[in-house]
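Margin note from the TA: students keep mixing up input and output lines. Inputs are the sequences; the output is the structure of the whole complex. Example:
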Amino acid sequence: MTVPSGYLSLVLHAHLPFIRHPEVPDFLEEDWYFEGVVETYVPLLRRFERLRDEGVSFQVTMSVTPPLASMMADELLTERLAKYIDKRIHLMRQEVKNNEGQHVYKIAQHYLDEFLAARDFLFGKYHGQLLQSFRSLRESGHLEIITCTATHGFLPLMQSLAAWRSQVQAAVRTHEHFFGVRPRGIWLAECGYEEGVDKILTEAGIEYTFVDSHGILLGDPQPVFGVYAPVVTEEGVTVFARDPESSKQVWSQKEGYPGDALYREFYRDLGYDADYDYIKPYLHNDGKRRNVGIKYHRITGNVDLSHKEFYDPQKAQEKTAEHAGNFLFNRQAQVRYLKDKTKDPPIIISPYDAELFGHWWYEGPQFLEFLIRKLHYDQHEVGSIKPIYHQI
Amino acid sequence: MIQKKSVHILWVTPSTDLFFRSKGEVQCRAGSVIPKLVEKGYRVTVLLPYDATLLPKTKLAATRVSAFDVKLEKKHSVEISKLSRAQVSPAIFMARLPNVDNPLRMALFSKAALSLAQQLKRNIDIVHLFGWETSLFPLYLELDHAENKFLSNTRTFLTVNEIHDQGNFAPEIMNAVGLPLTLFHPEGLEFYGQFSFLKTGVMFSDGVGLVEPTRRNGRLNGASKFSGVLDAQLFKLRRWNSDRSVKSYLDAYQELLVMLKAKPRLPRLVKRLHKNSHAAEKYMEIWGPQPPPRYFQNYLTLLTQNPVKAYAYWEWNDSSFVEFGLMRHDLSNGDKTLLGRHLSEVGEFWIDVEPDREYFVELVGWTRTGEMRILLRSNRIRTARDKQSPNRRATFVDMRTRRRFRGRGVQSWDRILKLLKGGGTSAAEWGPEGVGVPVAVAESSQFRKDLL
């Protein structure tokens, strides 16, 4: 087996604030969680499982924050999530029926298929226990699940060691509770690292964490290998840093992939486009128009929302494959350049908010799937790796 | 053409920085616009908050000091002292306010300005206000003094130097500053769930001067929500490049003086506001509980924002000090700098710092006798580096052998890399220089980041 010249480590940070309102039947902010599950977590997990089942080797790291894990395990929210999905399926069935023979028919059918697949995955396969999918991928070695500060607290703003300790130890306990193992790594909220945090992490048995690029580049002593090899703190915590190049390709508003004209437009939504009486049953009890997550248009270009053109899932998918190829091409070039400048194969840390994939960038999960397939089938120069395995 | 000699302007400014004490009398510092206005024939009266450093060394004559009560929710004693003699222009006054929380203190400052305007017994053509601290003046003027013969034709002009400083506080403070809660409405004084002094000033003054460098520096971004308030008042907004140009002032004053006196704004507004305080309270509930104005604990906290900016916030609970300041200590070179003097018991302050240095700050207080004491000391902070460290003496750890190597004496990274790539797992392989020194280490890592 060929040893890769360098490694790409995809790190997805999944977090939502804890939103659970049993006192009212219909709470707007709970939609954030439902949208996150349907648009991001399920599409990602479904794809990871498919890749694994097809024998594609890959390693991805995901931080699942304690509030998010707690919501995923909550019965009330799961019950409401089922209703949310059923309502959307009902809406999409109507949309498919009403738009037969029209341009949006294909898109409506696409959404209907996605909602049905999400329901089957969540409630058919896992009986509403989404965490089981995470556990199964972790056990098969494809997914490294790490934790995050307990309430997504930004440690540098906290004034006492006790507060730091509580954030980290509560996170570790919650992780153990839901995933059955201690987390080896932690995503510090907003990469909030400060001198002394490493001691608290060591106490909690955390082996590694991440910082933004300048966290290592401007460190002392100067890092010999830049952000392409980790450093170890005084307390023995291994610290990886974000690679600015690969981040920019995805995050940049101007140059980033998600801004492509063929991709789905987030801000134009059926909740505002449809006739009020038609869409009202799918809005909240207050009857105010809001996003319902059904979007028929593509980014098109720098035009007003009213001038957006219709979305074509097929063309978007082709563009996604192209972007995945381009991303990999750039990582190969990066590895080729770096391999002589580091002792061990360089590691490229590419961290993203998980919700970017699917919720904001609708084609994001597809992009990741293409990328993982290309990493596995098309080349041997760049391998995918969990950060901590780079050290062993 | 306006007869400039007849124009009387009352400057109400929360900052005393433009003034200094000189042989018993207060004077304007060089570069101040006030002397230039006086030269142009304007009569200027200035009201400042109390600043012990501006007091004459001899006691002021009783005729130059007036004391009175201001009634808001409660009665508060205020004292106004005249620092300049006779009828000279500018006539400079100083308001000594009680030790209360900042929003209430600044409300009292606006009230003191109104009292001074009455005491002067002379028509005031323009009241020029500065910053959120004086922003309640136009509303107070409309509520209480519009019928006063000396103020009935007065125009107000508000200069906003720093759009970030908006004086936003919990709505509960409205009762304390004597304003009806019904005004806590999106079309009234409410601003994102808080009662905003600056919004009040922008809404109720006759003219607004927004100093534009704030926008050019991109600092407006953080306060961009406020652009909605400004946009609604565009007709009275003047955008200034600087607040040092006397021409800007003259243009603004001329415009104010030729315009018709605006009708009271409140009667037109009332129809759109809450019907009663109960409705306002219901509205307040939407925004949830507000943090209390103080916690009744003494603390001073210092945080870093970036390599060149730090932020301090504090609370002090002891009424024996009349004035507060912040002292910055740079541990790297021992420098001490007094950052501000007219601070209040509860406050916050953005501090300029240098990269890669250690700092702490102290809250200092002045007693009534002018004695300065250190009250609180903050935690230490170390600011981040803004460029690469010059230190290249890294320690390398081989994770397979768990041995650590120091590149002692090897300054070239190319050489270090060659040695590492050549094996790097034993001291012998560090080359004939014998520079590699293996040390026992427990960690498993590629290399260790610490000082040698």
